[in-house]
Amino acid sequence: MALIDDALYDQTVERLASWQRCLGAQPDHRPLTRVTSSSGTLEHPAAQRGLNKTDDDGVRRFTSRRENLWIQPKVDGVAITLRYVDGELVEAVSRGDGERGQDWTARARQLPAVPNTLPEPISALLQGELYWRMEEHIQARSPSSGARGAVAGAMARSSPEAATLEHIGLFVWGWPDGPNDMESRLAQLSALGFDSADYTYPLDDRRDAAYWRDSWFNGPLPFATDGVVIKQAERPGVRHWSSSPPEWAIA
Fold first, then answer.
1. Residue 66 and residue 51: Cα distance in Å, rounded?
2. Of the four listed, 30, 140, 158, 240, which is most buried by Cβ atoms within 10 Å?
3. Is residue 225 a contact partner of residue 58, using CB atoms and an 8 Å limit?
4. What is the mean pLDDT of the chain?
5. Rounded to an integer, what distance in angstroms lies between the CA atom of residue 51 and that of residue 216?
6. Could you tell me the end-to-end alpha-carbon distance of the chain, in angstroms, rounded to an integer?
7. Which residues does the UniProt record annotate as the domain NAD-dependent DNA ligase N-terminal (predicted)?
8. Catalytic-role residue among 74, 83, 100, 185
9. 3-state secondary structure labels for all residues of 104-153
10. What residues have CB less than 8 Å from 226, skipping those under 6 apart?
């Protein structure tokens, strides 16, 4: 169980950033770290990056200056990095502070939603969200579902039941060392068995960010959401990634 409601936690993080700005300090947009020591932690091969959050005006400014933009639901779960070598899962790391996280390799191998072996013998670094599977969940009706806390609690248990592990899904939203253009990334993720393409759409005049935000907020989904993420189709290579929020994506 989460110690506080997910929405209250997010509000507290935003309030901290506001106080830091008032005091003239540079706000730290990364989620508050739960990594309290280096024992049992691993360094992320590519940093798990937080996102700058904005409103409708900010979205208009962001989209007016960029082309070839895509949108995904911001899945409300627990972030994880999966590293595959020659198609075999060799490492799983929790979000942590974005640069180091808990070693979740053993637990990830128990999750039915996380393949231990890919259908192709490729090496890949995947970033995604572990989420609590929900039946026809409508975010507008149940904004405080506790879904994130349910996943975090399951991952923290010493011996969770098989039914609990089966209740955890995976949404892959990033492939830092994968194809640089979005269409190729989505096609290859689909070939590997991931459903990222089912929830990733290009933005255009007919279906803009507001359309998808409202559709996902008011329509049924298999997971809880806490917004949307807009990102450029092309982004810097993995060597240039740090834990600071990127310029090519926004929530």
1. 17
2. 30
3. no
4. 83
5. 19
6. 26
7. 3-251
8. 74
9. CHHHHCCCCCCCCECCCCCCEEEEEEEEECCCCECCCCCCCCCHHHHHHH
10. 6, 7, 10, 74, 76
Report the alpha-carbon distance of residue 31 to residue 205 in Å, rounded. 33
Check residue 53 and give its pLDDT.
Answer: 87
Q: 37: which residues sit within 8 A by CB, 6+ positions away?
A: none
| DSSP 8-state class, residue 162 | H
Cα separation, 151 vs 56, whole angstroms: 30
The mean-pLDDT minimum among 134-148, 170-184, 225-239 falls in 225-239
| Domains of the chain with CATH codes | 45-250 (3.30.470.30)
Q: Is 53 a catalytic residue?
A: no
Per-residue confidence (pLDDT) for residue 73, from 0 to 100: 94
Helix (H, G, I), strand (E, B) or coil at 59: helix
Q: What pLDDT digit, counting tens, does each position of 65-74 carry? A: 888 899 999 9
pLDDT at position 56 is: 85
- The tens digit of pLDDT for each residue in 34-57 reads 433 345 788 888 878 778 888 888
| Separation between Cα atoms, residue 7 and residue 18, nearest integer Å | 17
Instruction: Considering only the C-alpha atoms of the chain, give the largest distance between any 2 of them, rounded to a whole number of Å.
Output: 52
At a CB cut-off of 8 Å and minimum separation 6, what does 232 contact?
66, 68, 69, 70, 248, 249
Cα gap 93→35, rounded to integer Å: 12
Q: How many CB atoms lie within 10 A of CB 133?
A: 15
Instruction: Tell me if 30 sits within 8 A of 98, measured CB to CB.
Output: yes
